[in-house]
Amino acid sequence: MKVDGRHFRSIWLEPDGWSVGAIDQRRLPHEFVIARMTSAADAGEAIRSMLVRGAPLIGATAAYGMALAMRADACDAALDLAYKMLIATRPTAINLKWALDEMHGMLRPLPPSGRVAAAYKRATEIAEEDVAINQAIGQHGLALVEAIAATKPGETVNILTHCNAGWLATVDFGTATAPIYLAHDRGLKVHVWVDETRPRNQGASLTAWELGHHGVPHTVIADNTGGHLMQHRMVDLAIVGTDRVAANGDVCNKIGTYLKALAAHDNGVPFYVALPSPTIDFSIDDGIKQIPIEQRTSDEVATMTGRTTDGRIETVRVVPAGSPVANYAFDVTPARLVTGLITERGVLRAERAALASTFPDRFR
Question: Catalytic residue numbers?
C-alpha cells in the first residue's frame, strides 16, 4: 500500500539481507518511524510492546524472529529457546503459534549448518504468502461491495470497520480493508466509518492514517456511534478482521466487535469477517469458552497519548488516580451473528462444515 505515493509494507528485510525493518506503529499517527530488528529478542519485544500488531503481522514478525535467532546461534537449544520466548509474547492471536510451528517444524530436522538460509527463506515465504492471501481476500470481498453498489447506482457504499485490520495489521493490503482498497482503486464510491477503537485507538490512529494516506474517504467515529448509524441506515455493511476463528465459526477480535455484531444483527446490516486461513484454529470448538482473552496493562485505558496544539507528543491520565482498571483486549462474536467469512478461497458460512471443507489442508 502507499504512504504519500510511496509503496510500503509493514515489515521487510533490510538491504543488508539479514536485519528486519518494520513501521513502529506505537508512534503513529503523529510520527512515521522505522524500527530495525537485529535479534530474536528485538522481534519478541516488538510483538510484546505492539510496535507490530495484528495477527498476520505478528506471525510474520515471529517467523523473522526465528530467522534472526538462527543467525545468532543455530543449535538445537537456541532454536527451542527462541520458540518458547516468542510464543509467550501474545496469547490470543493464533497466527503467532502457526508461524512458529511452521518455522520450528521445518528447522528442527535440519543440521545447524543449513538452518540460517532455510529460516530466512521460510520467513520470507510466510510474508509473501500473507500478501497473496490478502489480495485474494480483497477480490472476494470486492464482489460484496460491488453487489451493494449495484443496488444504489451513483451513491456511496458506507462500510463500518472496527480496530485496524488494514495493511498495517498484515504484511500488505490488509484483511478487512483489502476489499475497500480494491473498490476505491477501481473507482467505486466508498466511504468508511472508522471506529476509534478504545483503548489503544487503533482505528483513529492507524486505520484512519492508512486510509487517509491512500486517499480513501473516511470518518472517525466514537466506538458507541455504530449502533446509531445502523439504525438510521447509514451503514451498508460492516467488515472487521480477527485474531482467531474457532472451528465452529466463532470470531475473536478487538474488544467491542461483539457489540457491533449485535447492532448489525438487530438492524439487518450484513456483518462480515475477513480472515486469512492461518487465523483459523481447528483445535478450538467453542470460541467463547476456549479462546484465551489477553488482559493488558491498565495504562492503555487510564491514559491517552496525542499531539498538543504546539506540536508536542504528550500522554495524559483520564482516569482518577486509585480507580481500578480492567483491560480486556478482545471479545468473541458468536458465529450466529456473522453473515459470512471472507477468506482467500471465497466467502464462507461461519460454521465448521464450511471451514473444514474449504481448508482440508489445515483441518486436522
Answer: 243
Q: What is the per-residue DSSP string for 273-311?
A: EE--GGGEETT-S-HHHHS---B--THHHHEEEEE-TTS
From 105, 21, 24, select the one nearest 68 (Cα to Cα). Answer: 21
Of 80, 79, 75, the closest CA to residue 113 belongs to 75
Instruction: Summarize the confidence of residues 126-155 as an average pLDDT.
Output: 96
- 233 neighbors 240 (Cβ within 8 angstroms): no
The mean pLDDT value of the chain amounts to 95
pLDDT in the model for residue 364: 63
β-strand pairing of 157-161 with 237-240 = parallel
pTM: 0.92
Task: Report d(CA 149, CA 119) in Å as an integer.
Answer: 45
Question: 134: how many CB neighbours lie within 10 A of its CB?
Answer: 26
CB atoms within 10 A of CB 152: 12
Q: In whole angstroms, how far apart are CA 283 and each of 39, 202, 362?
A: 31, 29, 10
pLDDT at 244: 94
